[in-house]
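Milestone 3.1: sequence recovery, worked example.
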C-alpha cells in the first residue's frame, strides 16, 4: 500500500512465482473470453489458486478521515467441464533509459518454443507503459514477414483490446516482437520499463 503513513502494510506477492491471467486499469471494461476458451485453474494445473492484487494510484480516500469503502473485485465463472481451447497471457517486458526531451523505442523479441503441438491464436492485446509510453505494438514474424497482432496507446484504459489481425496463428519457429514508443518531455534522463 502506498501511503504517507508507515502503519499500513501490503501483502506479499506469491513466494513461488506468479502467472498473470488477467489485468486491467484506468476504468477499462470487463474481459469476455471467446466461446469455448478458458484458463486452466485448479488441482491438476500449474495454477492452484488465484490472488487478486489491487494497485492504487492514491490510497488517501480510504484512510482517515475519509474512510471510503473499497469495492474492488472480480466476478469469475468456473466450470468443471473443460473447454476445447485454453487461454493464457504471453507477457513481454523490456526496459531502458530515455534521455531528456527525446523519443526512444524500446524493443523486445523472442522465438516461440520448439513445441510442434503448440498453436497460439492471439485474440486480444494489452499495453502497459507507465506515464512515458505513447504507443505499443506487437507482431508475429514468420519468414521475415511482420504481421501486426495489436497496437494501442497505453494512456487509454488498460484492457485486453481485440487483436488487429483476427485468426492469426503463432506456431513453432515464429518470432514474437513488441515495440514501445516512449517520450520524455522532462529535463532529466529517466529509467523505465514496459
Amino acid at each position: 500500500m502506498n501511503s504517507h503513513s508507515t502503519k499500513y502494510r501490503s501483502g506479499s506477492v506469491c513466494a513461488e512465482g506468479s502467472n498473470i491471467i488477467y489485468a486491467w486499469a484506468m476504468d477499462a471494461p470487463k474481459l469476455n473470453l471467446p466461446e469455448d476458451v478458458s484458463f486452466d485453474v485448479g488441482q491438476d494445473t500449474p495454477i492452484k489458486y488465484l490472488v487478486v492484487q489491487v494497485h492504487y494510484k492514491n490510497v488517501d480516500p480510504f484512510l482517515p478521515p475519509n474512510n471510503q469503502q473499497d469495492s474492488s473485485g472480480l466476478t469469475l465463472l468456473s466450470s468443471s467441464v473443460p473447454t476445447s481451447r485454453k487461454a493464457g497471457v504471453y507477457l513481454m517486458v523490456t526496459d531502458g533509459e530515455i534521455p531528456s526531451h527525446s523519443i526512444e523505442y524500446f524493443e523486445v523479441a523472442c522465438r516461440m518454443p520448439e513445441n510442434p503441438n503448440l498453436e497460439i491464436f492471439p485474440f486480444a492485446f494489452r499495453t502497459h507503459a507507465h506515464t512515458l509510453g505513447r504507443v505499443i505494438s506487437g507482431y508475429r514474424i514468420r519468414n521475415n514477414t511482420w504481421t501486426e497482432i495489436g497496437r494501442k496507446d497505453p494512456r487509454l484504459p488498460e484492457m485486453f483490446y481485440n487483436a488487429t489481425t483476427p485468426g492469426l496463428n503463432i506456431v513453432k519457429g515464429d518470432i514474437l516482437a513488441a515495440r514501445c514508443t516512449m517520450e520524455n518531455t522532462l529535463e532529466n534522463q529517466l529509467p523505465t520499463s514496459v
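The CA atoms of residues 31 and 105 lie 29 Å apart. The first strand starts at residue 37 and ends at 38.
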